[in-house]
Amino acid sequence: MITLSSADINIWIASLLWPLARILGLITAAPVLGNRSVPTTVKVSLGVLLALVIAPTVPKLPATDPMSYAGLLILVQEMLIGVAMGFTMRIVFSSIEMAGEISSLTMGLGFASFFDPNTQGRSSAISQFLALVATMAFISINAHLVLLSALAESFQTLPVSGIPINGGGFKRVADWGARIFSAGLQLSLPIVAALLITNVALGVLTRAAPQLNLFGIGFPITLGIGFIVVATTLPYLGTPLENLFLQGVEKVREFPRIWVAREPQPASRTAPPAAPALNQTPPAVAQ
């Protein structure tokens, strides 16, 4: 007869619940996998399936009741780790969307904005177009599978533990957020440069012929040149996007190595006096 104790049941629950928390955190924050158009049932089902596959390979778990206060803290910590890893890759897509925003404003399409269901805010036409291109490139190079592979490796690099993680990893995530502005400007630089030359030429033309209506001819010219530059640079976006995705995956793999360094224990304030050396001459006694 098979008998099960409460300790065995707690181990089974913890071995599935704690990895599932990290997996669902990444799926919620990661691009493509955490898209709002994907039903919640599909996301949860994918998370449970990945947890069932990854759980047998997870190192030894802490002997803590998952329903206790310490177990809930571990659950929250695993959720934060997964969200931070997914948010790291989401920053790459934010930089691509920012490139579209800069391009739209430079072309004069600032008024052509739509409601973005992912960010629950306004998004320009060029930004949504580049986001769709980035999504197709993300799937075509199997970057979503590489991201899931990095998630599985994180359980070996940063095992589930009751020891609190340090804040160095979250600071690196914040520092990685600066990539939004640098990568967004680099991707939009061809359009910005072409339209800057166009605006300078229009300014010279208006100065030479003041009777020309700048507002009548300027907008169609900048808009047409902007679309031409977008169509010209589109075939060459594959390599920059692939490099951005690879950098994002490397950051996802790097952060668990930073978090694995736990907080150092504070040193004692009262250190014992150093022992004198064997060949040290004792100090002379004051007369």
TrEMBL record:
Keywords: Bacterial flagellum, Cell membrane, Cell projection, Cilium, Flagellum, Membrane, Transmembrane, Transmembrane helix
Domain of life assignment: Bacteria
UniProt xrefs under Pfam families: Bac_export_1
Polar residues bias spans: 278-287
Location in the cell: Cell membrane; Bacterial flagellum basal body
Keyword Transmembrane: yes
Membrane topology of the entry: Multi-pass membrane protein
Protein name as it appears in the record: Flagellar biosynthetic protein FliR
